[in-house]
Write a structure and sequence with these properties.
The structure holds two protein chains of two kinds. Chain A is 60% helix and 14% strand. Chain A is built from five helices and six strands, in the order αβαβαβαβββα. Chain A has a five-stranded mixed sheet with strand order 3-2-1-4-5, sandwiched between helices. Chain A is elongated and about 115 Å long. Chain B has two domains: 83 residues, ATP Synthase, domain 1, CATH 2.60.15.10; 42 residues. In chain B, helix 1 packs antiparallel against helix 2. Chain B is globular. The chains are: A alpha/beta, B alpha+beta.
Chain lengths: 287, 133
């Protein structure tokens, strides 16, 4: 049976753990708020951008862009996997990686080559041991998602798509539905998918300066950047939300543990007192 | 006599409101937008935006993007947009000096040379806009 002192020591140690999980929960909550605000701020920009591209490429005939044209036969696939840098966020990263791995395994037999671009330390560590030969780039040590991360990645992908090094690119990330739900999802990056245009919109064509092709040249790479940026932000928000939930349940667990340990402690204390009393009484009787 | 002007950046909405007119730095030269402008799309370059409202004139510095105009509204999508009152003059000055110094060193590749030139232009525009106040 554990001595009083042992139990006391365990209680103190669990209390310290609880302090940490509680602090992490609060930090995650604050970061989540910021991350959420950034997504909300980006949405109007992304939506307008998509709408405009769709409109130009549908309405103005003959306006095409290399990044919008699908390949007849897809043989080389690039998979961008977005994870977080840090763990302690429940099943958040393993869910993303599971989804990524599943889709890679599904598509692999029909393809010549798959290359991986990894964003976040968790993803890199996962693939370092599994698919080291297919890993191409990895971005780690991210304190906060920056626009530069997305634009760098977008530029690289666009160049490789145009040169024929890859035939398709997809991104695996975590979609931020709410603070309680994050769904790992896969979206096609290249060729860039076009949003549907509502037919009732103003029918008069745009006058465009200098011309449609030049404008698409400017818009399409930017839309790719935005698409990636959005995925990075969603994943970041999801990470904080997942960590918040994980730390909340961890805090609850420590509470339960402390409760049961305190009960044990009190019982042990009571037992010790009873034992002492019995000893005194028997001692007195013996006299 | 008014149009709805919205300036959006990836960081959020920088400006939104009813204005009398707006002058934008198009890639082919500055252009003004009044009410009942034809449907029009144009890339924008780094430059200053002049916003005329009933309350007076406002200035803003923008970087590359594009403008989508129709008779009732103008939407400006740019990477960054700072209103004259929000510009940090000291930061703009130091960015300008930095860009100038690295342009002078000439050791850079062509790519980074272009980047530095863009940085210089952005800083110069910010300083110019801040001086309008």
């Amino acid at each position: 049976m554990a001595t009083l002192r042992d139990i006391k020591r365990r209680i103190v140690s669990v209390q310290k753990t609880q302090q940490i999980t509680r602090a992490m929960r609060m930090v995650a909550a604050a970061k989540l708020r910021r991350a959420q605000e950034r997504i909300i701020a980006l949405r109007p920009y992304a939506d307008r951008m998509h709408g405009t591209i769709a409109e130009i490429s549908l309405r103005q005939k003959g306006a095409e862009h290399a990044l919008l044209i699908p390949r007849e036969k897809v043989q080389k696939l690039e998979v961008v996997v977005v994870t977080s840098d840090r763990g302690l966020a429940g099943a958040f990263n393993s869910n993303i990686l599971k989804a990524a791995e599943l889709s890679i395994l599904q598509r692999e037999p029909k393809l010549d080559a798959i290359s991986l671009s990894l964003y976040g330390r968790r993803g890199r560590d996962f693939y370092k041991s599994r698919r080291a030969a297919q890993m191409r780039t990895a971005t780690v040590g991210i304190r906060e998602v920056e626009y530069g991360h997305a634009s760098g990645l977008a530029k690289e992908l666009a160049e490789r798509y145009v040169s024929g090094e890859i035939d398709e690119a997809v991104i695996v990330f975590s979609e931020f539905v709410s603070a309680m739900t994050q769904i790992p999802s896969i979206r096609q990056l290249l060729p860039l998918e076009q949003a549907a245009v509502s037919e009732d919109a103003d029918e008069s064509p745009y006058s465009v300066e200098p011309d449609e092709t030049k404008l698409l040249e400017l818009l399409v790479p930017k839309a790719l950047e935005i698409e990636i940026y959005r995925a990075l932000l969603e994943t970041q928000a999801g990470e904080h939300a997942a960590r918040m939930a994980a730390m909340e349940s961890a805090t609850r667990n420590t509470e339960e543990l402390i409760e049961s340990l305190t009960l044990q402690y009190n019982r042990a204390r009571q037992a010790a007192i009873t034992k002492e009393l019995v000893e005194i009484v028997t001692g007195a009787e013996a006299l | 006599m008014a149009i709805e002007l919205t300036i959006v950046t990836p960081e959020g909405q920088a400006f939104s409101g009813t204005v009398d007119s707006v002058v934008l730095p198009g890639s082919e030269g500055n252009f003004g937008v009044l009410e009942a402008h034809e449907r029009f799309l144009s890339p924008l370059q780094i430059g200053e935006v002049e916003i005329q409202t009933a309350a007076g004139t406002q200035w803003a510095a923008i970087s590359e993007g594009f403008a989508d105009v129709n008779p009732q509204r103008a939407v400006v999508l740019v990477e960054t947009c700072e209103l004259a009152s929000d510009i940090d003059k000291a930061r703009a000055e130091s960015a300008k000096n930095r860009a100038e110094a690295s342009l002078q060193s000439k050791a850079d590749s062509e790519d980074s040379h272009r980047l530095q030139q863009a940085a210089l232009k952005r800083a110069a525009v910010r300083i110019q806009v801040a001086a309008r106040l």
